[in-house]
Amino acid sequence: MTNQTPNSDVVNLDSSEAESQDNFTPVTTEEGKLQQLIEWLEEHVSAYSYLSEVVPLGASEEDIRKARASVNDRGARMPDAIIHGSMMVLGAAVNHSSPYLAYADGKVEVTDTTVGDSPSVPVRVFVPKDPTGSVVVAAHGGAFWMGDGSLRENSFGPNMAALAARSGAIVVDVDYRLAPEHKVSEAVNDIVRVVASVADDSLELQKLGAMPISDQNPIVLYGVSSGGHNVVSAVDQISQDTPVALLLVAPALDLRGAPAVWLQAFFGTSDDSAKEVSPGLHEPSRSMRVHVQAATRDTVVRPATEYLKKVEEAGGEASQAEFLATHQIAVPKVQREQITDAARFILEATHTERELPEDPAGEYDKEAIDRQNEESWGKS
After folding, report:
1. Biased composition, Polar residues: where in the chain (predicted)?
2. For residue 291, what are the β-bridge partners?
């Protein structure tokens, strides 16, 4: 009988076995590691419950804002919880750095500004050192009704900084209006307005290192979950003279089967197959390049397979990469892989170049772990 070392992925072998198997045998698959992390989060992290939160339809606007702030605050604690959980159940002798600490710490300048007026659209601009000239317009997720505030500040924002640093693109994070106070169409309009301000350079990104938008340098629209839905919907309203490419992370493109009362509140229609509700069921209005990042254990959104076929039928290029994750949870190593995959797509789609050093995933990195501990727990 063998004994399992606590918080380790290896079994203590008999000496005869150790000699023949390099002193250890992995007993936990990558799938198993993800499951261990999920179970730890479920048991030890109260913030994990935010993943199942639903909008309180019929409540007053004040109550909706309070509910949104509450769920955002819980969700904002998840990035640290995932890192702590990974250290606890997967072992501390592995690099569990977040994408931000791995790629962006001290390497990206951040500026808040607005686009237009009546109403203005708040945006956060991430400018990496030595920008390549490409521009990404990004839309956070959050089931169309949350994802702003502290959740955007502590989760989506750091990932956009990492994406900027890794890809060399200037990233414009759109703080779009949320349902149910505003219809989803208003969020889409906010994104369209920001894209226009990038295209005509009224946002003045060229002063920061952006190149003029062209067929060789399209604006990359980046969207996560409901944000992916919104950027796909925005394509129909963006000027045909403005080239775009799409980078979608677990996009919610097929909402068939959603409750009619929810659809009416968010979209102003109960037709769950309408283009504004389920854009993935309809052919895109232009030829463009589209890349999807799919989670292998996603039980929240339907696969984007049908939409990718329609992209190709419309003359565009479609690709998909799969990552071991649920809709919301991935180990830090996979999070970094997702950022790197996204950076590669941006570089290819915009015909720009930037060195992408190999990620030291799985290697012990004491300095990285010490930095992560200081960032997450505070210096003693």
Report:
1. 1-15
2. 247, 319
| Contact between residue 116 and residue 171 where contact means Cβ atoms under 8 Å apart | no
Instruction: For residues 232-247, give the mean pLDDT.
Output: 98
Q: Provide DSSP, 270-322.
A: --TTSTTT-GGGS--SS--EEEEEEETT--SS--SHHHHHHHHHTT-EEEEEE
Q: What is the pLDDT of residues 156-171, one digit of tens each?
A: 999 999 999 999 999 9
Residue 186 burial (C-beta neighbours within 10 Å; 0-12, 13-18, 19+): middle
Residue 212, both tokens: 């003029």
Q: Which residue type is seen at 52?
A: S
Report the DSSP beta bridge partners of residue 137: 172, 221
Which residues fall within 8 angstroms of residue 176, CB to CB, at 6 or more apart? Answer: 121, 139, 186, 187, 190, 191, 230
CA angle 186, 223, 166 (to 5 degrees): 140
- What is the distance between the alpha carbons of residues 202 and 116, in angstroms, rounded to a whole number? 9
- Mean pLDDT across the stretch 12-23? 38
Q: What is the 3-state secondary structure (H, E, C) of 116-159?
A: CCCCCEEEEEEEECCCCCCEEEEECCCCCCCCCHHHHHHHHHHH
The 3-class secondary structure across 205-226, one letter per residue, is: CHHHCCCCCECCECEEEEEECH
Angle between helices 61-76 and 78-90 (to 10 degrees): 30
Token output for 255: 């909402």
Element (H, E) at 41: helix 30-44
Task: Assess whether pLDDT exceeds 50 at residue 380.
Answer: no
Instruction: Name the residue type at position 260.
Output: A
Residue 216: both structure tokens together: 């060789």
* Gap between the Cα atoms of 99 and 95, Å rounded: 11
pLDDT digits (tens, 9 = 90+) for 299-318: 999 999 999 999 999 999 99
